[in-house]
Amino acid sequence: xxxxxxxxxxxxxxxxxxxxxxxxxxxxxxxxxxxxxxxxxxxxxxxxxxxxxxxxxxxxxxxxxxxxxxxxxxxxxxxxxxxxxxxxxxxxxxxxxxxxxxxxxxxxxxxxxxxxxxxxxxxxxxxxxxxxxxxxxxxxxxxxxxxxxxxxxxxxxxxxxxxxxxxxxxxxxxxxxxxxxxxxxxxxxxxxxxxxxxxxxxxxxxxxxxxxxxxxxxxxxxxxxxxxxxxxxxxxxxxxxxxxxxxxxxxxxxxxxxxxxxxxxxxxxxxxxxxxxxxxxxxxxxxxxxxxxxxxxxxxxxxxxxxxxxxxxxxxxxxxxxxxxxxxxxxxxxxxxxxxxxxxxxxxxxxxxxxxxxxxxxxxxxxxxxxxxxxxxxxxxxxxxxx
Length: 387
Fold this sequence. Notes:
Layout: H1 3-20, E1 28-35, E2 38-49, E3 54-55, E4 62-63, H2 68-81, H3 109-114, H4 129-134, H5 151-165, H6 169-178, E5 202-204, E6 217-219, E7 233-234, H7 236-247, E8 251-252, E9 255-256, H8 260-266, E10 286-291, E11 296-300, E12 303-312, E13 315-322, E14 327-333, H9 341-354, H10 374-380
Antiparallel strand pairs: 1-2, 1-14, 2-3, 4-7, 5-6, 8-9, 10-11, 11-12, 12-13, 13-14
């Protein structure tokens, strides 16, 4: 795709993103279109804070939620390259006190990375990452070997990283991954002092009912985030470096951050299934979805595509890297995590990058929100993206 086509795609996608704010609880966000050389086009839309109507800036950072899992996986592969760990190593080699739950049994690094250990999703009632990992001994495992997304599994990986390195996950990521990628200003973990550099997270003001167009938004509660399943805040250009790393087989600029073998393992399907398939408008959608060693792996129109979303309190993000086409997109929004606007923008943008003439959905004609009951709206905004 030449520069003129990319500029056209950018304008179309910016208008689509702006229009989407009218029919989604979406204050604003930033988008980067990415090639093997880096960010080709980028834009900001909407507001980073609604009460003052502060315009969104490309430099604004957002919590990227579960996209952080990709970085945790990169840290594990760095340790593999350093000879400190193997994919088939059992967790108890590094955490002798670890009990996997009921039934207890061997758990490998590969299973944790691919969400195939049969662990529960996770919980928010315990005070920190270590406490949640320790309490797993009281949880029941199910479907071992099948794909079952688990935040707790990546918390275990965080404890393994800290056990091996003797430092925090954030410090190791900065030293071994983020600085060599040229993204030293990425915030990990996310702490209160980072707020000045971040867009403000938002959610519906009236959370006892599903949001519908015209309902007000409010500032979402703020939490410091340190767990290895979702511990990073970044801006669009910084997240774009992840696509560059993948497209260039572990190299960013002059730095060979990881070996090609590590990137290939990250991006190869491992689990029997993966994240739910999504479809919008008349797009072909993904033909298959299987989780790899830290990222979801999809086939879209025959292309090898890796994706990951992130949903946090007040923030929703999505990342796509089409390895076959060398075309990627990063979308960061300050919309609450359960709403799929970031994923929809990303998938529409990916389709346009493959074909600038692609038909895109009209954000105002997906459904007639005024005609839906509140129960129906709860389904409409559930994240299915069958639009």
